[in-house]
Amino acid sequence: MTIDVTAPGQRPSAQPEPAPPRIIMCAPDHFEVSYTINPWMRPDEWEARRSELSGAAAAGWSALRRRLQQLGAAVELVAPRSGLPDLVFTANAAVVLDGKALVARFRHPERRPEEPHFRRFFDGLAARGLLDEVHDMPPGVCLEGAGDCVHDAGRGVFFLGHGFRSDREAAAVVADLFGEEVEPLELVDPRFYHMDTALCPLSGGEVLYVPGAFSAEGRGRLRERIGADRLIEVPEADAVRLAANAVNLGRDVVLAEASDDLKAALAERGYSVHEVPIRSFGLSGGSAFCLTLRLDRRSNRRSGRPVGGTGPGAAADAPGQPALLD
């Protein structure tokens, strides 16, 4: 039985509306493929089709932004800058959790000029009250933001990719700053050079993943950590279309394109798939997740959700006790 204790004439207290997801993006005004730092990048092809591909990238990026806004997200924009073509891939800008930003340190010299640009942007967000703290990586340690440090909120763990762009030593930095467990996993296929091209945690506890991107040991760790029944294997045909590089908002999954089989596997688990025309960015090795960075991610400790409540292999350590998993 429910008892109404509201006084006569008094309105019930309104429950606060949940804050919308807040996502950082950067318009592709200066996007191009002008150098080669991963197997996808072919500057000669870009130059031969520059007008066509530049137009497609602009239209696709706008379509992605509109779709995310239609799904309830608020978008913050980084100013594009000439000479920084990969600035559009904001997932690489930083790792962000609980109001803290850990600004990226890039492996390749072509991308290092992005670091001060992103640092100024995050300092500006802090001045507006959208961040509490902004931190830099220690000297000599590379970590290319959320591109290689993917957060699984339900399990309270970061999956950190190393081998191509980021250093395994970055795991200790992340664990110390954010107080979350970190699962370092070696990436072994150069096509999947960042963790976000090979793994995508979903809101229901499932995880999209590309098996061949990981070593046999890494695949074993994922089965142990996540549970075989929660792993959704991305077939090779979808993997090379960067389908694992998806944005998940609640029960919606936004990506460039997916096969009928992959869409059916997601629909069976209650997800709606939204395809957006962003294949032009695939010529630089990026897709939907690469083009976004969540600013509002919260750990279980801050959100009030129980730690480790998503099934087999979920985190079981007490809140506030980070661990670097070997």
UniProtKB/TrEMBL annotation:
A biological process from GO: L-arginine deiminase pathway
What name appears for this protein in its UniProt entry?
A: arginine deiminase
Q: Where is the signal peptide?
A: none
Q: Where is this region: Disordered?
A: 1-20, 301-326
Record-level Gene Ontology MF annotations: arginine deiminase activity; transferase activity
Catalytic reaction equation(s) = L-arginine + H2O = L-citrulline + NH4(+)
Q: Which organism is it from?
A: Rhodospirillum centenum (strain ATCC 51521 / SW)
Q: What EC number(s) does this enzyme carry?
A: 3.5.3.6
- Domain of life of the native organism: Bacteria
Which stretches does UniProt call biased (Low complexity)?
Answer: 313-326
Part of which pathway? Amino-acid degradation; L-arginine degradation via ADI pathway; carbamoyl phosphate from L-arginine: step 1/2
Q: Name one Pfam family in it.
A: DDAH_eukar
Instruction: Cite the Gene3D superfamilies for this sequence.
Output: L-arginine/glycine Amidinotransferase, Chain A
